[in-house]
Amino acid sequence: MTPLILQRPALLLIVLIVVLPLAAWLGTSVLHRYFPLAEEARENYKIVQGATLTLLALLIGFTLSMAVSRYDQRKNLEEEEANAIGTEYLRAELLGGEAAAQTKALLARYLQARIQFYVVHDAAGLDEINRNTTELQAQLWANVRDAAKAQPNPVMALVLAGMNDVINSQGYTQAAWINRIPVAAWALMILIAVFSNLMQGYGAHGQVGRRVLLLVLPITVTLSLTLIADIDSPRGGLIRVAPLNLLSLAQSMPANP
């Protein structure tokens, strides 16, 4: 279960914009006061500080790459799902008669349910859409299954395969939306970010240097982590996958199939 703070990037932004500057302030006001850094130890300290900041930068870079790859996967699967539904809508003509009309009408309803999956935000609405999707899938499969039993030929096998692609594509999409950056990776990255800001504050000396370091690094890291969380959050962030291909397919379908 993904924690709420990672599902709501705005909440993560608020927390980090408080915690990271506080860590830098503790370093410069508390640690520096009670455990002053000797000048002869400053060179070694800079090496450790540089290594810590480099590790943080690498973690942010790798995590951003993970988030972007997941975002691209969700986009590609939306396109594949639209293609599968559109192809099966055309193949439904092969059923003939009432079965064809009923299957096309169900596919049109199914398409609307899939569009709603991408735009809904609340958990209750999402649960209702998932239930509706499952029911429509059962009805669609029953339609093509019965037709294939009545006419077991290669044409019906093609229709069955197309419906199988429709159902599978929904499962792949569902799995991609659940696939998030592991919580342990987030915890490690935030912990290293806190220590990095603590060390920056501890190593700062001089009033101007302290003020700058207490603001620049915490804000930079906060914005970076918030961006990653936004891309990685399918519903809670500003950067979302829009069902453009599904909407285009819905517009191309006749009003009364």
Automatic annotation (TrEMBL):
It holds the Pfam family Bestrophin-like. Keywords: Cell projection, Cilium, Flagellum, Membrane, Transmembrane, Transmembrane helix. Signal peptide: none annotated. The lineage of its organism: Bacteria, Pseudomonadati, Pseudomonadota, Betaproteobacteria, Burkholderiales. The chain crosses the membrane at residues 12-35, 47-68, 183-200, 212-231. This is Flagellar basal body-associated protein FliL.
